[in-house]
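Exercise 7b. Backbone tokens:
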């Protein structure tokens, strides 16, 4: 079983920065993906960023490209989401997720999820 624990959410003013962390435990194998997703009230969940852990290759949604950075610390088994130049529309519950199975898309078929951490951006 894989467990994911997010931290680092909070309130920030527009234009500011925030860093989210996701601690991973359990047996993921070595070839897996980690993703960050978000969901605001009344909206569908959307993929924000993902990373292939073995290669380190990242992928970003257009809405956050050039503002957010996903990274990993393999020794700590932690994945980060650095959020810069945040906007009010970035306000949402942010979830990290792990995918240990095949998918045709970067944001599809994640099979393990954290509990989420709230990010609120004020204008």
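Sequence design result:
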């Amino acid at each position: 079983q894989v467990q994911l624990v997010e931290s680092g959410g909070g309130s920030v003013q527009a234009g500011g920065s925030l860093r989210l962390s996701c601690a991973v435990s359990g047996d993921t194998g070595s070839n897996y993906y980690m993703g960050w997703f978000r969901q605001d009230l009344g909206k569908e969940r959307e993929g924000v960023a993902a990373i292939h852990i073995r290669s380190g290759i990242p992928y970003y949604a257009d809405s956050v490209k050039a503002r957010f950075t996903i990274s990993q610390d393999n020794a700590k088994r932690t994945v980060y989401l650095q959020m810069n130049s945040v906007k009010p529309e970035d306000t949402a519950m942010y979830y990290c997720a792990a995918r240990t199975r095949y998918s045709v898309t970067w944001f599809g078929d994640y099979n393990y999820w954290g509990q989420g951490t709230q990010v609120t951006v004020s204008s």
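Instructor comment: The CA atoms of residues 19 and 82 lie 4 Å apart. The radius of gyration is 13 Å.
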